[in-house]
Amino acid sequence: MAHEHSFASPGPCGLGALAMACFTFFALLTGRVNHDALPLLACWMVGGGICQLVAGVIELKDHNIVGGNVFTFFAAFFMFVTALSLATKYGLSKAGLPMDGRIEGWGWLAGLAFLVMMTPNYLKSPKILFIAVVLIDIALACIVVLDLKLDVNRAMFAQLAAWCLLVAGWIGIYLVGAISMNTHFGRVILPATSPIVK
Q1: Cβ count within 10 A of residue 92
Q2: Number of domains the chain is built from
Q3: Which candidate, 114, 116, 117, 104, places its Cα nearest to that of 144?
């Protein structure tokens, strides 16, 4: 939060987009919406991707290697690739064409490895942000297992992923408020918690 920006901090925009993705995937993974929602969800992912790409580029410009790379990676894979994937899967399904979706499990495995390698960096961020990143790590691990179609209790893994994403999304929304209000008012309105590592 103390990082200096040549522009205003893009954190609230990027975290708001992350929360949107977390909430919508919670709805999908828990069956609150069905797969007929995929084309509309793809549209929302494109919007989120724009927010996260802007946030990532600004963070990279300001020499924030962690935030810049994570926001840019999320924009590309969590948002834009997901949007294309959802639209493709929906179209192939409606057309009755074959598809081996397990390839996404392999892609997400690389995404999980990337995020796990970035996670220790968040020990220097507010504790609450570190917790959100760990929750997203767990959710992504569950999604890897689901997409690889491993012989597991699929409902349990889907529920675990969903609830981790929902909690991470709410943390993101809280941080949107903390970053924007604390910056705008020049004092702590919403505490963001201290980092685990100084």
Answers
A1: 13
A2: 1
A3: 104
